[in-house]
Design goal:
Radius of gyration: 11 Å
Shape: globular
Number of strands: 5
Helix content: 10-25%
Number of helices: 1
């Protein structure tokens, strides 16, 4: 079961994660710096509010 959800986008051959930035949209390749959401619904809402050029989506994070 997922314990958190992140917002990601694909860029060339890698994933980029939405970071917790108040002023503007910011992306990082480091998953540990990603902004985490409690539910898929919250992450999906955040992804859908981004400009369409980002083509972002919610991705559940599985922890061992």
């Amino acid at each position: 079961m997922a314990s958190s959800v992140v917002v990601v986008r694909t860029n060339a051959d890698r994933l980029e994660y939405l970071t917790d930035c108040d002023a503007r949209v910011s992306w990082t390749e480091a998953s540990d710096l990603a902004q985490h959401f409690v539910t898929v619904r919250d992450a999906t809402r955040a992804a859908m509010r981004l400009p369409s050029r980002f083509r972002a989506f919610a991705l559940p994070v599985m922890h061992a």
